[in-house]
Amino acid sequence: MFEELAMPLFDSLYNFAHWLTQNRDEAEDLVQETYAKALRGFGSFQLGTNFRAWIFRILRNTFLTSRTGLKATMTVPLEVEEGAKELAVEASTPETILIEQASQETMQNAIAQLPVHYREVLLLCEVEEMSYQDIAETIAIPIGTVMSRLSRARKLLREQLLTRSRRG
Amino acid sequence: MACDSWRSQLDAYLDAELSLDEMRNFDAHVRNCPSCAAEALARVQMKRSVRAAGLRYAPSAEFRARMQRSTARKPWRINGLAWVFATAAMALLVVVGTGQWGGREARATQVYGEVADLHVAALAGTSPVDVVSTDRHTVKPWFQGKIPFAFDLPELQNTDFSLVGGRMTYLDQAPGAHLIYLVRKHEISVVIFREASLRGLDAGSHATKQTSFSLETWTQGGLRYFVVGDANAADIASLANLFKAAGAS
Lengths: 168, 249
Description:
The complex is a heterodimer.
Chain A: H1 2-6, H2 10-21, H3 24-41, H4 51-64, H5 67-75, H6 93-101, H7 104-113, H8 116-126, H9 132-139, H10 143-167
Helix pairs in contact in A: 2-3, 2-4, 3-4, 4-9, 7-10, 8-10, 9-10
Chain B: H1 4-8, H2 10-14, H3 20-32, H4 34-54, H5 61-71, H6 80-124, E1 131-132, H7 136-142, E2 161-171, E3 174-183, E4 186-194, E5 206-210, E6 213-220, E7 223-229, H8 233-248
Helix pairs in contact in B: 3-4
């Protein structure tokens, strides 16, 4: 049963782990440890509840307590944004065009530059297509915080892309 | 500005996080407001680029094999005479079963491929559905007189699914119903035929994944159902369950 639930998520978990750690070896270690912990704790998992959010949460918590994870969260202080309802920035047409023209590599670099708290929420939403509720469960934060982090992540990403395109 | 309240909800709208009523209101607003439409388009493009860029890392084949070995179930332990009997029984099953099962499996795989083709062909067309409605009470009667059977559509309230519409379809020269649903921006097809019209398909209930499409099939009340799409297998299974419940009620 564990194998049937966990192996279909292998590629997604690996991709997410690599984005968090930014390193192939560390990503492999992180995924391996996640599977080992999930297998050990599988008895406490309630069938019928959200397995994906459960195993992503294990991966994320394992990352946060790793050396790279601690460093990533220590060196980038989380800005005051909890609960703040941020109004979306206006995107003028020229900006839109610049973002459209950004190459995949530019976009990947911009995502990699995001502080880890924003990067993870953005990836869970856009790549994993998780609902706000699932993201909230995975990260153990309220839905309002998911929304404000997502909004902030998108704003930061836009700013990064604009700065890069201006620099040429 | 006048659109401030819409803009503050634009991300939730594009992330499909609003209620069905709110989504409809938003749809109507975006159709009539060029400024919000342009902004929505820009954000959709941004979402697409982030998704494409975010699918960046793939595990190595070696790592995948290692993980598969470590999560695989331990093999059964059989010893002594029991092992000899088990082997003999298996050999007999293989000899007797291969011809029949080989043929059945090939037929099932062929039908699954054709159903996936129906799904892709419908979505690739300029009008994927002939009856456009989110209301099951509009879609179901539309099929009356067009197909030689009737079926029930599930209630979708409090689910992530919405009905897009329906069209007629054919498989093995037999007419059937093709419904299209939406879940988190993924289209899912539900295709229904009379079981008797599908020659030699003895698939029972089955879930499979082929060329990145998930497919679930079963029979109920003399009808053969297929649910197929590129959404994740869990979504395909939930929609299948809604249909099973509707068919049983």
